[in-house]
Structures are given as C-alpha cells and as structure tokens.
Amino acid sequence: MNTTTEDILSGIANQLRIDSISATTAAGSGHPSSCCSAADLVAALFFGHMRYDAKNPHYANNDRFILSKGHAAPLLYAAWAELGLFPRAHLDTLRELSSDLEGHPTPRLSFVDVATGSLGQGLGVGVGMALCARLDQLDYRTYVMMGDGECAEGSVWEAASLAGIEQLSNLVVIVDVNRLGQSQATAFGHDMEVYRRRFEAFNWRTEVINGHDMGEILEVLGAAGLGKQPLAILAETKKGSGVSFMEDKDGWHGKALSKDEAALAIAELQPKAKSGLAEPIPAPTQLPLPKNAAPASYPPLTYKLGDKVATREAFGAALARIGEVDERIVAVDGDTKNSTFSDKFFKKFPHRSVECFIAEQTMIGVATGFSTRGKVPFAATFACFFSRAFDQIRMAGISNANLKIVGSHVGVSIGEDGTSQMALEDLAMMRAVEGSVVLYASDAVCTEKLVEQIASHRSVSFLRTSRPKTPVLYGNDEEFPIGGAKILRQSATDKVTVIGAGVTLYEALKAADALAAEGIAITVIDAYSIKPLAKDTIRAAAQKTNNLVITVEDHYPEGGLGDAVAGELSADGIRVTKLAVRELPHSGKPEELLIRYGIDSTAIVKAVKALAVA
Predict the structure, then answer these.
(1) Catalytic site residues?
(2) What is the mean pLDDT of residues 304-328?
(3) Strand spans (E) along 400-455
(4) Which of 18, 156, 448, 558 gives a 20 to 30 Å CA spacing to 46?
(5) What mean pLDDT comes out for the span 77-90?
(6) Does pTM top 0.90 for this prediction?
C-alpha cells in the first residue's frame, strides 16, 4: 500500500501528541489534552503547508505562526524538535528552571515572535504582522492558532474587525474548536455555525472542517490567500484526540498524565506515529528584504526659547520629522490622532500609518506585531485609555517588544473634560512593566529629543505628553538621555530640592521665584526620566539640601514620580514629601484644578516653608 501525504502528516501528528504527552508527564504539569486536539492542524501547517527556513526561524519572509492558545506550548516545541532545531530529548526539560521551554511560549526561543498565554491576544499581533508584510512587499503569510475558549475575549473581535476592514488576505486564523474549556464546556460547544457567522460578520472568508481529517485540512490550507478577505479555518476537534480514555472528556484540561497513563496513551498512538525529520519543507520566496536600519542622525529642531507649544503637539512634529529619515517608524492610532497630533505623520506617510479605531487592545497588538518584524511602532492615544490595553502592554513587556507608547491628556491639567479623561494612574501602570522606560516631557524640545531617544532604544517605552501649551525651556541642541534629569535652579544656599515633570515643573519654577523673593532658595529638577530615574543626580542635589525633597506631580500619589524617587533614594536617608492629586478630581479650568488639588506653585511654596523652618 502506498503511503499518502495525508498518512504521513497524520503520523507526524501522532508523534507530536506522543512528544507533548511525554514532556508534560516529565514536567508533572501542562496541557496535553489541548495539544492533542490541535496536533493534526499543527502537523499540516509545519510539515505540509507553511513556507519557511527551518534552520533560520527569524528569516524575514518566512511564514509566521502565532500560538495564541499558548497553553499548548508543548505541541509547538514538539514541532520544532521534529524539524531538527533542537534534540527531541530536550523536550523533557519542559518547565524546568534551566530550560527555555517554558509553560507558555516566550521569545527566549528563536521560533517564538511574541509571548502568548494570556488568551485573546494572538490575533491582534497577527494583524500587525500581516500589515507589515503588505508594507514591506513580502509574501509571507501569518497563521494564528486560537482556541475556541479565547473567542469569548472581546480583543479577538476587535482584531477580527480590523483584519476584515483592511482585507488582509495574507492572514489565516485556525480556531481549534475542541468544545471543552478549563472549568466547563465552552459557551457554544461544537455549534460551528456560531463561529462561522461571527467571523463572516467581520468580513472574513470562513471554512468549517473536521480538524482531524488531514485531507480536509490540507484542502482548505491550499486555498489560503485567495480573494481579498482574511481566512478563518474553523476546525471541529476533540480535546485529547487520539487517546481513548481522554478524548472529548471533561476533567483533563491542564492535567498531565501519570507515568502509567502516559504509557497507555503512547502505546495507543505509537503504531501510526511517524517522525517529521525527513520531510521537505517548502522554502520561502526570495524577495528584497526591508532595510530596518536606524539612520545616522535626525533632522534638527527649530524652536525658540519662550515659544508656547503643547508637548502633545511636539510629539506629532517629532514623529513626522524623524519619519523622514527613519523608515522603521510606523504610527498606530486609536481614533485620536488629531488630539495626539500623530495625524502629522499619517498625512505625511499614510503607507506607514494604521488606524485601529477605538480599539486600544488591538492597537497595542498591531504595534507589537510590527515590532516583531523590525519596525519601530508608535501607538498614541489619551494616556487613560491605555489602561484598557494593559494586559497587551504587559505581554509586550514579556515579549521584549520594541514598542513605543505615547499617552497624551494626562492629569487634572486637561481641564474641563473631567475625570474619565484624566490619566492619573498611567505612570504607575507603565513603571510596573518589566524592562520599561517611562518618560515625561516638560517642553517641546525635551519631547522631540525623547521621541528620538525611544526610537533608538529597544524596550517598551512610554512617553507622557500634556494638553496645555507650555513655554520652551531648552535650546534646540540640548540632549535628553534616557535616565537623565535637568537641574534648572541650584545655589549653595538651597533649603529644599523640588522635583517636577511636565506641567508641575513650571509650577516648581514659579514657586522658586516666589520663594526667592522671600529669601528662600530651592533646587529645581526636571525629572523627565522617571524610569530609569536619575538617582545619582537627585541624590547629589538632595544631599546639598539636608536630604529634603519635595516631588510634585499631576498624578495620583501611588506609583508615580514621588514613589519612584522615594523607592530609589529612601535608603540614603532622603526624606520625600509627595505633592500629588489625592482625591477624585472634578471638571474645571486647568489652573483651577492645579490649585484645587494642591500641585500648583502656592502648594509648593507652602510645602517648602514647612520643611525649611522645621
């Protein structure tokens, strides 16, 4: 009897099941039943359909694969072991401290673009990758494997909507509809028409298949890329497929098999198992690759001292300016570009701009997708709205994504729009992301130079910009390195060090003038870099003012500038008094609100006097 392609791929699928079971049993934890349901789909993709260089997972025109259902990580690892990227024996190090084969995938592995496992995020990233292929004129396709359970996440449908609007025919979603969730059956079980109708409502082409019929799987994969719509392959599967005592049964989610159970399961799978090591993999097309190199320099600035410019407007000018020479820059918007001023970039470089509409989770996902392909994406909206996408930002941090986030309309200084529009938690939120950079510009020059800095610095970077117009303080040649600070006032007789950023820096300068008229001198520091903090600069200044420090911020006291300073310098005996917004704000004029909530120059004067005479 001749062995057909379907037989070979089904055999590889069984080997993937065996390897997933063996690895999770060795680890004593994991999700083998979730691996088994998707094994036929993964075998067909990796060994019968996708075009890629298995020895070079980072090659720019490889087809991309995102395992959005990240708990099925052992299946992904097994596939790459079968491709010969690392020895199969290494699979038994799953979940060990010394192994990069973690419980859910992370980019510590060369074949993983983004960390997954917080469900509902893979599709947004996939949309960004597919858009980047279009931008770079490459023909790779992006394949996103999702579970049916994660289709309850709203972020899935945000991303599905954008993919349909953009007509991303180079994007394929495979939904592993195995019916069983973690604690009970999913909402729709095997009602495949529900999934079909939902994707079709967002302008997707859909195919409903038996996810264990290799012939059907290959047939629908062969139609990927046809037409203008993205393709959703809705695969009806059985959790624990191939293992009779586990297949389509409750109670097996996230449960490793015992050694005896694993032996029984492997004995059942082994007769039809086949290694994929000898199978030829279709090669990617050799096309001109994008030039994702940083420029030698950026065009100069032309501000005049004293000019009044809102830092949000300076951000838009900076993005358009550096975009002239840096083709890596991409702008991603959430329908606020005329307020964040990223519309300057959109108008100048429409082919490098993506409107995600009011869908912040997808905006961050799309930006993260671009970052995996060598771009430098700037995602901008009102800073308060990033709280809706914090999980995507958190996962971008885990992914070590090169993501630039710009939040405008911060604090009570936005004025009459009211509390719902005031970002008062954003510094705390962004500081909490591992490896993040958190910056807060006070004037236009500082803003533009910080945009340059984060464009050149690989990290999740957050730049806080303000709504009010503020005077230009710095000359065009001033530099603002990440981790720095600027001392704007200092004398030998200073009594207190006052640290501000953004609008409160100007209040600190007003307070310094008022105090000087009374014979009280203070040091004033612009802490434009909140993470990392210029602790050496601040420590040295504080030691000259008897270790007395006042921080003043348009933010709640928890987790902002004051906590950053106190956390870094409290061990040095430095006493930090924090002026911050300490109650739920109200609508009003910006100057009224600064006074009302105790972060204006008068409040600073009062706090300085209380310390100076104590």
Answers:
(1) 360
(2) 98
(3) 404-408, 437-440
(4) 156
(5) 97
(6) yes
